[in-house]
């Protein structure tokens, strides 16, 4: 019996964690090791060798970060990608880079930067449900500043909510960034149609990574849900599988 402990950020938004990478690892473990791991809720990032949750403990061994945890589990024989060819595995690495970059930034923006979502949903979640005020304040200040810094290139103005609401998130003030993403997404969609990963017959590590990020777009009841509505209307496959 494998004794694995996964330490993750606390639940929220009707999901088992408020963090996309924690959700992704939970998804992967549920697929590859159901019943062989325990979930430990924590906000102690120091448990992780990388200084950030999620963190996996296997007896006396600690592993941190999505990539390290997945690689470790694969070495232990828990490999969701073992049926893929070497070329397909290389493709997954390329697609993961898109999620780690622009996909992660969209998640951060939606939860921590967008003024309506932050003020009405995210901040009350932290203050009222999980942490003492001082801890919540410091944690949110750090996370929001980090998110704002990462998404500066979006060039989104938060001063015209009515204008924002009348446009797709990929249109208002994203300029070249949104165009590049839509073009890239269209190209990748054509390639993925013939691949066995991303909502294929068997879930892969890439499916888990996508789930962790998109779940935080689909399930929270945000007042500014433009991104979620856009994805639901343009990507019915995502809506069906999530």
Number of domains: 2
Low-confidence stretches: 159-181
What general form does the structure show?
globular
Specify the helix fraction band.
55-70%
Q: Tell me the total number of β-strands.
A: 4
Sketch the topology as an H/E string, one letter per element.
EHEEEHHHHHHHHH
Overall mean pLDDT stands at 80
Q: Total helix count?
A: 10
Largest sheet: 4 strands, mixed
State the end-to-end distance: 31 Å
Q: What is the alpha-carbon Rg in Å?
A: 18 Å
State the assembly state of the protein chains: single chain
Which class of secondary structure composition applies to the elements? alpha+beta
Strand portion, in percent? Answer: 5-15%
Key phrases:
7% strand; 242 residues; 2 domains; 4-stranded mixed β-sheet; Glutaredoxin; globular; single chain; alpha+beta; 10 helices
